[in-house]
């Protein structure tokens, strides 16, 4: 990107772009195949529906050759990985559709790390994980048991920024690190998306749901996965902010977040999305 193009990407530009992509998702209802974990299926499907996309929780290896080529994007999530599901993930990721990887708890076991690295070699458009997942994936390592915190991150997103840039350059994928500020990078550019509320971390699989939303946005904008990922993260975070205004705790926030995602309008998105290029 040249300097002139960078200058145009001010906060107002990002707000307009986020609204444009969300509007396109609503108009086109991209079909997103989700080969995702059992915990996340409900919230991921509901988030996609609320945003205007069409989710399909299809994971049978026998269905992939017929079904996946009809999809607009694929979302692969290793949260409840098994030897039975891995071939389906490989096949779906190899079907020629834009796809997104969520390496949940990548460092939980050698099997899981090997699976994530194998999938990463298939060139996802976007890899979205928390800081601990991205650090482990970039290092290609499984930490000692005493340093492992399950699917939750033990690091801040900024701690994984250099690892994310390195991983993006080595993999050819856009890498998104979730946290208080979500960082999105192609290895050269870095974008920060700052929407969201801390209580979203108290709802299981919100990270999985936003990765599904990234897949829907990538379906609309496959040629610029960095912009698609940044806008999806900000839109989902904004829905969390608006949902929090009516919530007392995690259970009510889950409901209000999905409602807010469905009800987002142009004024809300263009005025409240917070995305900025980092110098």
UniProtKB/TrEMBL annotation:
Q: What is its EC number?
A: 2.7.1.50
| Domain of life, per lineage | Eukaryota
Keyword terms, alphabetized = ATP-binding, Kinase, Magnesium, Metal-binding, Nucleotide-binding, Thiamine biosynthesis, Transferase
Identify the pathway: Cofactor biosynthesis; thiamine diphosphate biosynthesis; 4-methyl-5-(2-phosphoethyl)-thiazole from 5-(2-hydroxyethyl)-4-methylthiazole: step 1/1
Q: Which cofactor does it need?
A: Mg(2+)
Which intervals of the chain form a coiled coil? none
Any one biological process term the GO annotation gives: thiamine salvage
NCBIfam families for this protein: PRK09355.1
GO MF terms held by the record = ATP binding; hydroxyethylthiazole kinase activity; magnesium ion binding
Please list the reactions this protein catalyses.
5-(2-hydroxyethyl)-4-methylthiazole + ATP = 4-methyl-5-(2-phosphooxyethyl)-thiazole + ADP + H(+)
Quote the Gene3D superfamilies the UniProt record gives: 3.40.1190.20
Instruction: Return the similarity comment.
Output: Belongs to the Thz kinase family.
* CDD domains recorded: THZ_kinase (cd01170)
Q: Is the Iron keyword given for this protein?
A: no
Function, please? Thiazole kinase involved in thiamine salvage pathway.
Q: State the name under which the record lists this protein.
A: Hydroxyethylthiazole kinase
**SUPFAM superfamilies, A to Z:** Ribokinase-like (SSF53613)
| Organism of derivation | Panicum virgatum (Blackwell switchgrass)
Q: Does the keyword Kinase apply?
A: yes
């Amino acid at each position: 990107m040249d300097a002139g193009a960078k200058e145009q990407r001010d906060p107002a530009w990002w707000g307009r772009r986020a609204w444009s992509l969300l509007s396109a998702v609503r108009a086109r209802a991209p079909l997103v195949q989700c080969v995702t974990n059992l915990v996340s299926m409900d919230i991921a499907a509901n988030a996609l529906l609320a945003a205007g996309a069409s989710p399909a929780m299809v994971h049978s290896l026998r269905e992939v050759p017929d079904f996946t080529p009809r999809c607009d994007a694929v979302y692969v999530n290793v949260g409840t990985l098994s030897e039975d599901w891995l071939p389906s993930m490989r096949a779906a990721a190899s079907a020629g559709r834009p796809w997104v990887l969520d390496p949940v708890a990548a460092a939980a076991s050698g099997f899981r790390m090997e699976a994530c690295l194998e999938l990463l070699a298939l060139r996802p458009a976007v890899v979205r994980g928390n800081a601990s997942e991205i650090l482990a994936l970039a290092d290609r390592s499984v930490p000692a048991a005493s340093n492992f915190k399950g699917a939750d991150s033990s690091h801040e997103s900024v701690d994984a920024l250099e690892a994310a840039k390195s991983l993006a350059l080595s993999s050819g994928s856009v890498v998104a690190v979730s946290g208080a500020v979500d960082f999105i990078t192609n290895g050269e550019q870095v974008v920060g998306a700052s929407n969201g509320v801390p209580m979203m971390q108290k709802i299981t699989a919100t990270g999985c749901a936003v990765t599904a939303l990234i897949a829907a946005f990538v379906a609309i904008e496959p040629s610029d996965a960095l912009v698609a990922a940044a806008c999806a993260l900000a839109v989902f975070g904004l829905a969390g902010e608006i949902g929090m205004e009516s919530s007392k705790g995690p259970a009510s926030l889950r409901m209000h977040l999905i409602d807010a995602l469905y009800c987002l309008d142009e004024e809300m998105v263009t005025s409240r999305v917070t995305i900025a290029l980092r110098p």
